[in-house]
Specification:
The protein has 23 helices and 21 strands. It is of the alpha+beta class. The longest helix has 41 residues. The chain is elongated, with a radius of gyration of 34 Å.
């Protein structure tokens, strides 16, 4: 082994050109695989930072229209009391909190959780002791490591200290470790940031809807579905057993409360599936793409080794004649292949390390732990194993074939012939055909995804996103004592913003389209029979201020916008969008019709129809939506939209100054332009299309190198024939056509084979495409044309070189 290794190093050193091309070819394939594996390792394979994470699961309600629906507080109590398959269940609710009294006020993402939350996850605190099941002070708070380091300077004495949240003092009882991560369970489009602190639930240990009412009892509430529930399986209990028991409990609850729970089932989802299920298809496609790139690299190097075997035929024949077994020769050549692959692996590792920052920047926010992608021991091990396997893969066929040549013929030839025989030539041609086929598969995938992404970028969202600034506000407790107080404060904020010189329009809504949360509600139409429980029609639900539609650039198609006359205590009004109007009153005028939220809310008169928007992002078609005026239905949190004449970022400091003058303790959060929200919503298709396009380009480059190598070798084999033809008066075009005809044949076969694979790939990509059919003929034609033209161009280089052969010198050879 040592002698073979030393000989392999000396042999490769004598052929620096061959070695460089082979190593760089392998580096591209191994580096791409290493880079993608580092992402998978960080995002999916690295163990979750909880005790026995495989025993953790989520519990959801389910209906005919929605597979995973949050629990109501009363339903959480039912499962907590009756589900014996789990040792504990903890409820979770998202609530924003304002931190004040320490530097600039800041809005923080927080969670209200059952006191058993940290016990269920089984994660000890870094400092202090988090609240436990049944034992939690109403005013306690647990900090994340990031918040502790960023706002409190990693103060080791933070435990026991009071901080002000929503105007209320709270005592820090614990700080969680740095590795503890708990993502947003239902992330906003393009965002997955989790809470920065946690507070205990309200009465009956239920998650709160607001941080300012620790005494509120929600245990009988069966209509407000906002609770996400996480549970820990008992030892020896399977997920399937827990699902069966949850089904029985759901049926029992439905019988006891048919009006609210009659049509609701239960769904048990393992933690890993909940977090990573939606990502697996994307990552599997990327794994398949980089595997194809590596296959092309292996085929390329195998072809190079077959060509290199030509020059070594006499050497190998002498070894065999002196008594070496063929297995011994094959082994020595495989050692050389593994040395090449190891060098390629080392360069590929450097390539993957260099690409890390780009992958992190490009990665979608919903790829949890993407920011922690790194080259660790697991990635190093993967690269090492992959390098050895790659060396065996591309080395075994050339080694066996070269070692199997005719010894007597090779000794008699004296090493002067350039040919290795028809079998070697056919093998190299087959390898080129496979490279072209795989390249076509990747090119078709890349073009499909790029066209899909281009369609997404240019889709009309229904919103004039240019020069549109957005930010969120969540009122502190001192300003939420009454709905009137909330309304007055937000009206003052809007008046001040509209008075700024660069502001054209301003408004606010409870939920921000594309970059915000999603609210929906069932509704009832006046004069129609009440729907069956569990089958009520629903639509997106918004509460907006006057001026919101103008600021967003959403047209009022018919009727009027909200105005100052729509006050609390006045006639309740509602605006609907075009989709809802067509659903409920097709071909009719909806103005003056009445509807209500739920089955028992006040009747709302339709006063206008607004244009459709893509609330859930560019890829999701417009849905039915209705809007209530903020003056009649106020909330303590609002998302503001401000349209400016020039760069909206320049208005941020002036807006912040105006709000500070009204209330120095009131922060604004999530400041971004609407273009940035759309950009984040497109992060996953951008990630996929960019990477597949890069891999397609690499595959195309490697395939062209393969075509060039085979045709160059073919010219070398036919040097004497070409010289004779030219000596007899053959024209340049005839010689070029002779060489290119072979290139054309190989390319045609490769394209035909590749088209079958491309059809299969397009079906796999169908769920990721937007406005592009998987069987899109222009895409297949463009990819085939591009690859065919590039292959012919690669073959034309040695063909033109053949025309410059000196006939006299060639005939003397």
């Amino acid at each position: 082994m040592t002698r073979d290794l030393a000989y392999a190093l000396r042999s490769l050193k004598k052929s620096p050109g061959f070695t460089a091309v082979a190593v760089l070819t392998l580096a591209s394939g191994i580096g791409a695989n290493t880079a993608i594996f580092s992402v998978i390792n960080s995002v999916i394979l690295r163990p979750l930072p909880y005790r026995q994470p495989e025993r953790l699961l989520f519990l959801w309600s389910s209906t005919a229209s929605m597979m995973r629906e949050p629990l109501t507080p009363a339903r959480l109590v039912d499962f907590r009391d009756q589900l014996t398959s789990v040792s504990a269940i903890a409820g979770i609710s998202h609530i924003p909190l304002n931190l004040s009294g320490i530097g600039e006020p800041e809005r923080l993402d927080a969670s209200s959780v059952s006191s058993s939350f940290f016990d269920v996850l089984g994660v000890p605190a870094l400092l202090g002791d988090p609240f436990h099941g049944g034992r939690a002070d109403d005013r306690a708070v647990v900090l994340s490591y990031g918040l502790w380091a960023r706002r409190f300077g990693s103060d080791p004495g933070i435990v026991g200290r009071q901080i002000t949240l929503n105007g209320t003092p709270r005592t820090v009882v614990a700080v969680m470790p740095q590795e503890f991560e708990w993502p947003a369970i239902t992330p906003r489009p393009g965002r997955a940031a989790g809470p920065q602190l946690w507070i205990p639930g309200a009465s009956r240990d239920l998650p709160r809807t607001t941080a300012d009412r620790p005494d509120q009892d929600l245990s009988a509430n069966r209509t407000a579905g906002y609770v996400r529930a996480v549970a820990r399986l008992k030892d020896g209990v399977t997920v399937e057993q827990a699902q069966r028991e949850a089904d029985m409990i759901a049926a029992r609850i439905g019988q006891m409360h048919p009006d609210t729970d009659g049509a609701r089932g239960a769904l048990v989802v393992p933690l890993h599936t909940q977090f990573y299920g939606p990502l697996q298809r994307t990552l599997l496609i990327l794994v398949g793409a980089v595997a194809l790139v590596l296959a092309i690299a292996c085929a390329n190097v195998a072809s190079l080794l077959l060509g290199r075997g030509t020059a070594r035929r006499k050497e190998i024949a002498i070894r065999l004649a002196l008594g070496a077994t063929r297995s011994r020769v094959v082994g020595q050549m495989l050692i050389e292949s593994i040395v090449l692959a190891s060098a390629g692996g080392a360069c590929g590792l450097l390539l993957a390390w260099w690409a890390q920052s780009s992958l992190i920047a490009l990665g979608p926010p919903e790829f949890l732990r993407m920011s922690s992608v790194r080259i660790d021991f697991g990635v190093l091990t993967f690269t090492g194993v992959l390098s050895v396997a790659t060396g065996l893969l591309f080395g075994i066929l050339p080694s066996i074939q070269v070692a199997g040549e005719n010894v007597t013929r090779d000794l008699h030839d004296g090493g002067t012939r350039a040919s290795t025989g028809p079998r070697s030539t056919r093998t190299r041609e087959v390898l080129v055909i496979l490279q072209l086929a795989v390249s076509l598969i990747l090119l078709v995938g890349a073009i499909l995804l790029l066209r899909s992404f281009s369609a997404l970028v240019h889709v009309d969202t229904g919103i004039a996103t240019h020069n549109l600034l957005t930010f969120n506000m969540f009122l502190s407790a001192t300003r939420t004592t009454s709905p009137t107080q909330q309304t007055e404060f937000y009206e003052q904020v809007l008046e001040r913003i509209r008075s700024l010189p660069d502001v054209m329009a301003a408004g606010a809504a409870v939920t921000l389209p594309i970059g915000g949360d999603d609210f929906s509600a069932s509704y009832t139409i006046e004069g129609r029979a009440l729907p069956v429980v569990g089958h009520e029609p629903s639509a997106g639900y918004q509460v907006v201020t006057p001026g919101y539609f103008s600021a967003m650039g959403i047209p009022i198609i018919t009727g009027r916008d909200f105005n100052t006359s729509d006050v609390r205590g006045g006639a309740p009004v509602v605006l609907i969008n075009h989709t809802l109007a067509q659903r409920e009153w097709p071909g009719q005028d909806p103005i003056g019709r009445r509807m209500r939220v739920g089955a028992d809310g006040p009747w709302l008169t339709v006063i206008g129809v607004a244009g459709d928007i893509r609330h859930m992002g560019p890829a999701v078609p417009p849905r039915a939506e209705f809007y209530q005026p903020y003056t009649q239905r106020s909330f303590s949190f609002m998302a503001f939209v401000v349209r400016t004449r020039h760069d909206p970022a320049a208005a941020v400091s002036r807006i912040r100054s105006q709000i500070t003058q009204l209330d120095p303790t009131q922060p604004i959060a999530n400041v971004a332009t609407m273009d940035e929200h759309v950009d984040r919503a497109l992060s996953r298709p951008r990630f996929m299309s960019t990477l597949i396009a890069v891999f397609g380009a690499v595959a195309l480059g490697l395939s062209l190198v393969g075509v060039y190598g085979v045709m160059s070798y073919s010219v070398t084999q036919r040097t004497r024939e070409i010289a004779i033809r030219m000596a007899l008066g053959a024209r340049t075009a005839t010689v070029v056509g002779l060489i290119l005809s072979k290139t054309a044949r190989l390319t045609a076969v490769g394209l035909v084979v590749g088209l079958f694979g491309a059809v299969a790939l397009s079906r796999v990509l169908s769920g990721l495409l937007f406005a592009v059919r998987p069987s899109d003929l222009p895409t297949f034609f463009l990819a085939s044309l591009l690859l065919g033209a590039a292959a012919l161009a690669a073959g034309a280089v040695p063909a033109l070189r053949a025309t410059r052969i000196d006939s006299i010198e060639a005939l003397k050879m």
